[in-house]
């Protein structure tokens, strides 16, 4: 499998060259390429992620080989960086199970359960141009050994996407919540974003209910540990799900926060997140920045 995965970039470049040569001759290569482009960007991303596990070669063709901007700070830019990362994987070790996938405009964002240098939960964001992936961001966190105080994992819960006509409305609601509460600390507005005490929580350390969130934050504050969001970088949504990408501090650590919210009847009903410390700049393998 390792050899198969590592050959993907080479095979891709050969395939692309072959396509250019044969397109002008009227062979069926063009037809196959056009057929492959009929699938949605969301399907392309799910297939690409799964290929990390299976070694399938075709999904690499969904990446633009001439432009692939990488924001994972531990991976070098371009397809070469992606290939070098795969080379480091122990043979047959990778597992990829995408739980949720969403699409907004040129962006696809996913929540995935990985075994990737150990078990992890991750959010990935891909940007497309002309049907090809040209940019990637992610956030990864080690999978906890046990469920949170309410018995939830970081990935369980509903996956149904609905209320597509309310995407913009739900994005505005969630962005306002993060700005008011997590960035600006306007705790007097907290209750207005929720349906009473109803709130399902998937953070590994926080129980359900709005009161559970408040009690956890208070307990941390009593220990001198504070959660502070400094800036929102991106808000993406599809229907009742909204992902907010932010940076800030949890205690003394400078972190990247990916928070996925489910909205129901105009109120925040459920929350998943991944928190990743931002690596020191001298360790970065690309200069694109985390965000």
UniProtKB/TrEMBL annotation:
Residues 174-271 form the SnoaL-like domain. Gene3D superfamilies: 3.10.450.50. It comes from Flavobacterium jumunjinense. This is Nuclear transport factor 2 family protein. It holds the Pfam family SnoaL_2. InterPro entries: NTF2-like_dom_sf (IPR032710), SnoaL-like (IPR037401). Transmembrane segments: none annotated. The lineage of its organism: Bacteria, Pseudomonadati, Bacteroidota, Flavobacteriia, Flavobacteriales. It comes from the Bacteria.
């Amino acid at each position: 499998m390792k050899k198969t995965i590592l050959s993907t970039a080479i095979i891709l470049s050969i395939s692309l060259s072959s396509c250019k040569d044969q397109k002008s001759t009227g062979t069926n290569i063009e037809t196959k390429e056009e057929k492959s482009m009929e699938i949605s960007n969301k399907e392309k991303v799910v297939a690409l992620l799964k290929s990390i596990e299976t070694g399938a070669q075709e999904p690499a063709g969904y990446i633009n080989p001439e432009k692939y901007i990488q924001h994972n700070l531990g991976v070098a830019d371009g397809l070469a960086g992606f290939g070098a990362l795969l080379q480091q994987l122990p043979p047959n070790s990778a597992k990829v199970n995408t739980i949720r996938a969403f699409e907004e405009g040129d962006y696809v964002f996913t929540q995935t359960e990985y075994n990737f240098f150990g078990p992890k939960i991750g959010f990935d964001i891909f940007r497309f141009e002309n049907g090809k992936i040209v940019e990637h961001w992610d956030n990864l966190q080690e999978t906890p050994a046990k469920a949170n105080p309410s018995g939830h994992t970081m990935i369980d819960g509903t996956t149904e996407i609905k209320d597509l006509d309310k995407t913009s409305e739900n994005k505005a609601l969630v962005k306002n919540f993060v700005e008011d509460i997590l960035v600006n600390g306007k705790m007097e507005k907290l209750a207005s974003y929720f349906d009473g005490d109803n709130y399902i929580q998937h953070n590994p350390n926080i129980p359900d209910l709005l009161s559970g969130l408040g009690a956890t934050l208070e307990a941390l504050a009593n220990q001198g540990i504070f959660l502070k969001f400094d800036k929102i970088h991106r808000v993406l949504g599809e229907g009742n799900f909204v992902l907010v990408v932010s940076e800030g501090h949890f205690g003394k650590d400078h972190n990247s926060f990916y928070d996925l919210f489910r909205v129901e009847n105009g109120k925040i009903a459920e929350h998943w997140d991944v928190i990743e410390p931002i690596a020191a700049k001298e360790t970065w393998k690309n200069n694109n920045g985390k965000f």
